[in-house]
Design goal:
The complex is a heterodimer. By secondary structure, chain A is α+β, with helices and mostly antiparallel strands. Chain A folds into two domains: 106 residues, Ubiquitin-like (UB roll) (Roll); 136 residues, Fumarate Reductase Iron-sulfur Protein, Chain B, domain 2 (Orthogonal Bundle). Chain A has a five-stranded mixed β-sheet. By secondary structure, chain B is an all-alpha fold. Chain B is globular, with a radius of gyration of 19 Å. In chain B, 81% of the residues lie in helices and 0% in strands. Chain B has a single domain, classed as 3 helical TM bundles of succinate and fumarate reductases, CATH 1.20.1300. The chains are: A alpha+beta, B mainly alpha. The interface between A and B is large, with 41 and 36 residues. Bound molecules: iron/sulfur cluster (SF4) (2 copies) and FE2/S2 (inorganic) cluster (FES). One iron/sulfur cluster (SF4) binds next to α7 and α8 of chain A. The site of FE2/S2 (inorganic) cluster has 12 residues of chain A, from loops.
Chain lengths: 248, 210
């Protein structure tokens, strides 16, 4: 292992500006991850050509791959930078902001659209009312287990970033929101809005926009069985479609 | 909740259904008929063609049960394609390749089908006094090498598109849900695709050597 690491970073001064590339070299330390590289650059923001530049902006929070804030494209592949270990990466390490979201600055992106998608599918349990709704119904541990897989979603956006059907201009809600629709439709308390979610999934940007490339499930750092949820929702939306057609 | 609009959903499911019924079904039937040329001999192929040409309302069926569905399937398909960003250069996963190839093979198939229908279904009405096309005419058509290559490429693309479309259909209609089910259905669709492909290629061999 060389004693320095070369890093190429795709930078951007602010939203809407032209991106540009800069190269840095940082001293190698044992068990380094991409965040420590970025901290090193922040400490000494000098490019390989000796020019002192503004430090690179990035986002992070939990540092243990549960918040998703540090997601970026590392060597062409979308993932969390806190869990991207330098020893396991090919060099030079190439860092780019996520591809499907508007860049705020350098490696920081705005993932608001993901939250808008969650709103579209009502990714919550409706508990507000004029009276106490009481405790939720009991559920089988197997059922709880299956749903827990989906509860691990951290809205990091890896899945949508790798989805060929999720484009900057488009309005597809994306695989994460589909996974959450599945979660809430099967949750004992949240399922009362199941029809509304299914109907929302048949509108613009709904489930029909999925083209089955299945990249989402391959890149999800939490191994969420997204394609299984999508296939189940495909059946459910179809059933809902006929229900609307015949009974409404 | 306001009246939801399920038109986008309907459009896509309609497109996927058209690809299977009637387009895919016709494609498989076409493979079977053509295969007769190799497996049973040219006379049987000619007989089968004569039988099909004796069906009632043939032109009506050709236009409304085959032509129009293919065109609709293609137009909606191209419309869908415009809004995607293929990314196999970044994520070279198997399914992502199939997803990307599904789009390209669709385009190749449209070009192939257009020319194929013109040459082997329409043109001879005006240039010959044949009532129905016969094996001799088709064999002559394949005397040109590029027609053989064109057929080979066109059928390869169309067969892939058909078999992979069949697999997609299972997922899109919520039939094959689990990972294992999707692997098994992948084998089944591959087998169907291979069978269809063998029939078409056997017929190509029969016609080029006739
Ligand atoms: S489904 Fe997976 S990849 Fe997508 S946002 Fe959730 S955790 Fe990230
Ligand atoms: S399976 Fe659907 S949602 Fe997942 S990456 Fe492919 S197109 Fe996107
Ligand atoms: S900092 Fe939270 S996932 Fe990396």
């Amino acid at each position: 292992m060389s004693s320095t690491i070369e890093v190429h970073i795709k930078r951007q001064k602010e939203a809407g500006k032209q991106p540009y590339w800069e190269k840095f070299r940082v001293p190698y330390q044992a068990s380094m991850n991409v965040i420590t590289i970025l901290q090193e650059i922040q400490r000494n923001p000098v490019t390989t050509s000796g020019e002192k530049v503004a430090p690179v902006a990035w986002d992070c929070s939990c540092l243990e791959e549960v918040c998703g804030a540090c997601t970026m494209v590392i060597n062409g592949h979308v993932r969390q930078s806190c869990s991207a270990l330098v020893d396991k990466l090919e060099q030079p390490i190439v860092l780019e902001p996520m591809r499907k979201f508007p860049v705020v600055r350098d490696l920081v992106v705005n993932r608001q659209r993901m939250f808008e998608s969650l709103k579209k599918i009502q990714a919550w349990t409706a508990i507000d009312g004029t009276y106490d709704l009481g405790p939720a119904e009991k559920q089988a541990p197997q059922h709880q287990h299956e749903l827990y897989l989906f509860a691990r979603c951290m809205t990091c956006g890896c899945c949508v970033d790798a989805c060929p059907q999720y484009t900057r201009e488009g309005d597809f809600v994306g695989p994460a929101a589909l996974g959450q629709a599945y979660l809430f439709n099967n949750n004992k308390s949240a399922r009362f809005q199941a029809e509304e979610r299914l109907n929302a999934l048949m509108g613009e940007g709904g489930i029909q926009d999925c083209g089955n490339a299945q990249n989402c499930v391959r890149v999800c750092p939490k191994d969420i069985p997204l394609t299984r949820a999508i296939a189940k929702l495909n059946g459910a939306t179809m059933a809902q479609f006929f229900k609307n057609l015949l009974f409404k | 909740m306001s009246e939801s609009n399920s038109a986008p959903f309907l459009l896509r499911r309609f497109q996927s259904l058209l690809g299977i019924i009637p387009v895919g079904a016709f494609f498989a039937e076409h493979a079977f008929t053509n295969g007769l040329a190799f497996f049973q001999g040219m006379e049987h192929w000619d007989e089968a063609v004569a039988f099909i040409n004796g069906l009632p309302l043939l032109l009506f069926m050709e236009i409304f049960l085959i032509g129009v569905p293919i065109i609709l399937h293609a137009l909606i398909g191209i419309y869908i394609w415009i809004f995607c960003e293929t990314n196999v250069q970044h994520y070279g996963y198997f399914r992502n390749w199939l997803y990307t190839l599904q789009r390209w093979t669709g385009i190749i198939a449209i070009v192939f089908i257009g020319y194929h229908v013109y040459k082997l279904r329409i043109e001879w009405h005006y240039t010959t006094d044949l009532h129905i096309v016969n094996s001799g005419y088709v064999a002559a058509y394949f005397h040109e090498l590029w027609h053989v290559i064109f057929y080979f490429v066109g059928i390869s693309a169309a067969t892939f598109h058909f078999a992979n479309g069949l697999w997609n259909f299972g997922v899109k209609w919520g039939i094959t849900v689990g990972e294992r089910a999707q692997v098994i259905s992948c084998y089944i669709c591959t087998a169907i695709g291979v069978a269809v492909y063998v029939f078409f290629m056997a017929s190509l061999y029969a016609f080029t050597t006739a």
